[in-house]
Structure formats: C-alpha cells, structure tokens
Amino acid sequence: MKRRWLPEWVSEYRDRHGKPRYRFRRKGFAVYTFKAAPGTEAFRQEYQACLDGVAAPSIEAGADRAQPGSFDDLISRYYRSPDFLNPSERTRVVYRGVIERWRQSKPGKGKRYGEAMVRDLEPRHVEKMMADMLPHRTAANMLRKRLKALMQFAIRQGMAKTNPVDPTRPFKVEGTGFHTWTENEIAAYEAKHQLGTMARLAFDLLLFTGQRGGDVRLLGPGHVRDKRITLTQEKTGVTVSLPVLPPLAASILATPSRAMVFIVNGHGRPFTRKGFGNKFRDWCDVAGLSECSAHGLRKAAARRFAEAGCSNQQIKSWTGHTTDSEVARYTAAADQRTLSDEAGEMLMANLRKRLAIESDNLLEKGA
Q1: pLDDT in tens, 198-213
Q2: Which long-range contacts (CB under 8 A, 24 or more apart) does 250-255 make?
Q3: Integer Cα distance of 350 and 4 in angstroms
Q4: Fold of 60-174
Q5: Which of 54, 82, 216, 280 could disulfide-link 49, Cβ–Cβ 3.0 to 4.6 Å?
Q6: pTM confidence score
Q7: pLDDT tens track for 329-367
C-alpha cells in the first residue's frame, strides 16, 4: 500500500500545464487550492486556516437560497472577495468571528441580522447595536469597523448607495494598549530568569527581535543564516532580516535544544499561539511583573530604538511595521521624553543668553 504523505483532506492534481497542484477537500466545506508547496511554513499556515474554517469555510445548508439583497447574501459574497481574502489567515479568523456573531444574533424576538435587508440598515440601527454591547466598548468599535467595511463592499456590489456606518462615531477607549516594559522591569525579569532557561530565551527572542509572540514561538535554527534571522510575519506577510545581536546570540547558545524551534514546551514541542501567551504570562508573574506581557516587549524594543535616536524608517525595518502611525504609537513616550529634553536645553540656553546680556548691560552702565 502506497504511503500517504500529504495531510488529511489534501490531495494532488495536475493543472492544464501539467504542473502539480494541491487542494483541500473536506465534506461539508468549501474547496481550497493551496498557493504554497507542501512542507513549507506557508503551506502549514494555509492548511491550519482550512482546518479553522477560514480558508475553507463550512458550507451552510440553504446558503445558496439566501434572499437576494439580504445580509446573508452580502456576507456570502464578501467572504469570496479580495476585501476578505487578502488579509492574513489570522486576521480573517478575527473578522469572520465578529461578522458571524453579529449575523446570527437576533434583536429582541425578531429575525437574525443575517436575514435583514442591506438597504434597510440606518445609522440609528448601528448606534443601537453598539450601545447594546456596552460596557464592552472595544468590541462595539470592532463591530462598527466590520460593518463599515461590509457596507463599503455592498456599495460596490450595487446593494447600497451610501454607507450608513459613516455618520456614526466609535466609543472612546481609555488606555494605550499593552503596557510597555520599563528598563527596571526588564532588569527584574533578567534577574529572575537566568541565561540557559527557556523563560529567558523566550524573553531575549522577543526583546532583541522586536517581533510578535506568534512569530517568535516558531523561530528556530532554520531561520538563522549568516548571523541573521530572516522570517515572514504571520500577521502582515512582511519579511524582515535582522542581525542576531550579541545578547540574543549568547542566550541561544546557552539554551541547547535539538528541536526545530528554539522555544518548546514541557513535552519538547512548539507552543501553540495561545499556549505561548499563557506560559509567558506565567513567567512574568513569577518575576512579579503582573502588568507585563509578550507584546509589551515588542513595544519596549521599539522604545529602545527611538531612545537611541533611530528614525521611523529604521524602526520599521526592524519591527516590520508599514506605516509611521503604527510606530508612533509605540515610540510616543520616547519621542516625548527626547523632545522635552531638547526643549529644556533650548530654554536654559536662552535664559543663560538673556542673563549674559543683562549682565553686560549692567557692566556698561557701571562703567
């Protein structure tokens, strides 16, 4: 019997040019054709997206009989559009979750929102939906963003003439997101977790690459070549090539492992995204750092670059951000501190100059 080498539900076929292609075919789910070749990290991500029901969503009974002009009809089209398919698999999971929860919910004892007609949606309806989600302001704002994108797509489909979400406003959300680690907190973690431990290696990989935890957990020797780490970010698809800085090199060498990735769990296997986040949370708690997180180290890395005088372009080349506004959120504190120092020096220089002039004037009068 020929041994099967492809993952479950994946089969090979030849296209019209005779080139081998691979597709995901599972009963009750849409067919998905892979873009990457089996055995690659990109293929693994596509396959996981199929298993998660994102790249190959389940086929809903009666979906083809959705009433024309309804949100069920619109969403079905949206899931097949570049608007939805172009973002990363991870982003699509989030978007789909928000849309489906809203689609299946019922206002009072009425019909599902999915059964409502697109043309009937008004700004007051959107504001009512958001108000009903309080006190969860962030979730309400997320729904608003997804509905806005959905209605923009509806305009292009000829299912709406205007976007009823535009006149609405998001809720103001207090706070600046994940806490940025301070130098004292960095020192406290390093003091608790010594070189050679998995806790310290995870920390050093996060801090000295400035990458997201979801990407760091999958880094391994295969990503290192010519003293550089090269990786493609899962969330954005951006590829970065980073020099392995001396502190990180020392940490990697101090933590021997035969695994394909640097960071492994107690069973010698790579962490899941959620598992890595939870474990790093535990390591922070052990060090007495309840406000700190893996993503906060990414912000700390950007802060350090800003404090060193790096430009936004230099910081983006390291973190993989694509816009200055994204970097600005991470480096605002460092920028404010630098600018206030510069302003203080300018102020004192001007005061010294004024005092010198006044002193000269007094000397002239005395003479």
Answers
A1: 999 999 999 999 999 9
A2: 250/195, 251/195, 251/200, 251/201, 251/204, 251/205, 252/201, 252/204, 254/195, 254/196, 254/201, 255/195, 255/196, 255/197, 255/198, 255/200, 255/201
A3: 78
A4: DNA polymerase; domain 1 (1.10.150)
A5: 54
A6: 0.62
A7: 777 766 676 767 777 788 888 888 888 888 877 777 766
